[in-house]
Amino acid sequence: MNTFFQGTLAALLVGLGLVLSGWGIGEGLQQFRTGDRSVTIKGLAERSVDSDYATWSLTFRRAGDDFGDVQRSLAADRARVANFLQSSGFSEQEVEVRPLQVQDVFAREYAPGNHPFRYTGSGQVIVKSPRVALVETAALAVDPLVEAGIELEGGSGPRYQLRGFNDIKPALLADATRNARQQAIDFAAEAGAELGALKEANQGVIRITGDDGSDWDDGSSRTKRLRVVSTFIYALR
User: Fold this and answer.
1) N or C: which end of the chain has fewer CB within 10 A?
2) What Rg do the C-alpha atoms of the chain give, in angstroms?
3) What digits encode the pLDDT tens for the residues 206-231?
4) Are both 95 and 129 inside the same structural domain?
């Protein structure tokens, strides 16, 4: 083999090596960039759920100048309230009767000198029941108590709770996950890519509000609005 031929062959081999090396480097960079691509998606889920427990405190007050009269009036009011609840369909286990309280206003250290009555007292009957529909119906039918002269304290409406929240939570989070994945699929298609594996997930905080449009749940709304925004990071191929 002559010298010219050997030199030419060596030059060709070196050139081919550089080409292959450059192709490998370029391919590696392309894979790195592709593997590093990802998309962050927020999945939204909302549900309206009926409360499963209710607490209803009926507080009533009396005032007068005779201790015995105030106490007897409160006892009569308590009996009327208990009878009303019984006739409304509540069982003894659902009704809690609290002891009466009567105070001597003039015996207080900072008692006002112009108070119209010496004694003030209050009583309370509490309903605790999972029968939220019955509680709501009874709360809208207290007119007979008012007509009987019972002074119900303002804000004595029922307070509704969602005690089965943990039973609803998985389904709500699943809705948010499906919502996010569909968004990610649509985004990948628009970007000319394929959706890869889930890299990171944050379920977010589930907010419970009333159905009246308020930003918090004060317990007055029987229907609860559940909302969660979960964050997911998907790889793109």
Assistant:
1) N
2) 36
3) 999 998 777 889 999 999 999 999 99
4) yes
